[in-house]
Design a protein that fits this description.
Elements lengths: L1 H18 L6 H7 L4 H4 L6 H25 L4 H18 L1 H10 L5 H27 L8 H13 L1 H7 L5 H14 L6
Helix pairs in contact: 1-2, 1-4, 1-6, 4-5, 4-6, 4-7, 5-6, 5-7, 5-10, 7-8
């Protein structure tokens, strides 16, 4: 039964990415799986459970990785490099979930919505702290931390779209070049 649920989640994630959460019905998911809609309910309670599962899975991955990075005693630029790399890894491994997180999180309800909003706020605050530390240490140019945060996160949050259009680049090249491009724009040159 666990494998069937995973299949349902995978199919739903793909459909949510292609059409958006609101445009996809349980009937659409069942049809894509070549089964009756009523049979889906043997494995899952409904669209809200699917949405929560997809989003919380990827949000938890980001949160746990950020927690590991912030607890390490590394220079700020090395921490930012690691943040970029984890975004790339998670994007490559959870492309559909990322699309759902970015586009459909507003459809979450109750505690799940509160949890995701809190995770996102904490994640951004941790990232902001790393940037501020880099600025105070002179490793990052004296630019507004919010602009730096927005610039990096905007690029990383839309990576799933860009990478798919470009034919899914080799992850190692993607990491090397994205880290270089994003960091060289904020590093003080010697």
């Amino acid at each position: 039964m666990k494998n069937r649920k995973k299949e349902i989640l995978k199919v739903a994630a793909y459909l949510f990415k292609e059409k958006g959460f609101s445009a996809v019905s349980m009937r659409d998911i069942a049809k894509a799986m070549d089964m009756k809609a009523a049979s889906l309910y043997n494995h899952i309670s409904g669209k809200q459970e699917i949405l929560s599962t997809l989003i919380l899975e990827v949000a938890a991955a980001f949160t746990s990785q950020m927690d590991m990075i912030t607890s390490e005693t590394l220079p700020p630029l090395k921490k930012i490099e690691k943040v970029i790399e984890i975004h790339i890894d998670i994007t490559v491994n959870y492309s559909e979930n990322i699309a759902t997180l970015n586009n459909d999180w507003v459809h979450l309800e109750g505690d799940d919505l509160k949890k995701v909003v809190k995770m996102r706020e904490d994640y951004e605050e941790n990232f902001r702290g790393i940037i501020k530390e880099g600025i105070s240490q002179g490793a990052i140019k004296q630019q507004h931390p919010e602009v730096i945060l927005f610039s990096i996160l905007s690029t990383l949050r839309t990576l799933y779209l860009w990478n798919e259009k470009r034919g899914k680049m080799d992850v190692n090249i993607l990491k090397k070049d994205m880290v270089s491009v994003l960091l060289n724009g904020i590093c003080i040159s010697n």
